[in-house]
Amino acid sequence: MFITLEGSEGAGKSTLIDSLKEYFKKNKIEFHFTREPGATKEGQILREILLNKAIEIDPYTETFLLLADRLQHVSKIIIPTLAENINVISDRYIDSTYAYQGAGRGISLEYLDQIIKPLNLPVPDITLYLDLPVEEGLKRAKHRDDLDRFEEEDIKFFERIRSFYLEQAKKNPNRFFIIDSSKDKEEVFEISKNLILDKLNET
Ligand code: Z5A
Known about the structure:
The protein is of the alpha/beta class. The chain is built from 8 helices and 5 strands. The model has no long low-confidence stretch (mean pLDDT 95). Bound molecules: ligand Z5A. The site of ligand Z5A has 25 residues, from helix 1, helix 4, helix 6 and helix 8.
């Protein structure tokens, strides 16, 4: 099974992943955890460029760098792991590109479809979207010492991203699940873990 986690700034994906890792390990359920950008060696180099706030990157360049990262990720990690019947959870994937580069940066969704669809990338079985009011997410993220190139964007950028994700959830109710991440960490974990277990039992 292929699961993706999505969310905007400070929504709590990393926190949730730590709890899921612990739970699956304890219960001997095999999952491979991965992320975008930066899961492969080549992707690490691309991630450094993408997050470096000292560099100005055109939105189209940004998109192609993210797609280069994704192609390496899919061919070197996602496809081989799924082929071994090992479940995969990726922290961010295709929906991030539509949300951040599409709704956020303003690249048309038709254009993104034209460059992404021919790549025939695997489609996630389920996507958990951690939803949080933008101001709350930014407040949580502000605790960090150093903001990256995305985190420096203004609130409207993140509002467009949130609206896009919520719309996606309405359009894809069988794949896309909204998790209210204003709830406490334990509750977010319980809801997410139960959704994943239900889906695992179905398959
Ligand atoms: N990006 C893109 O533009 N297009 C693409 O196609 C792809 C990615 C694939 C990668 O950033 C950036 O790449 C991302 C989009 C872009 N940038 N943004 N924004 P990243 O990998 O460095 O980070 P991130 O994905 O944005 O996640 P994050 O910033 O690390 O946040 P998080 O993992 O969702 O949150 P967290 O670290 O778990 O929690 C933040 C704080 O909140 C922390 O202090 C927690 O203790 C606290 N927290 C967590 N959960 C709770 C609850 N439930 N209650 C209270 N406090 C909580």
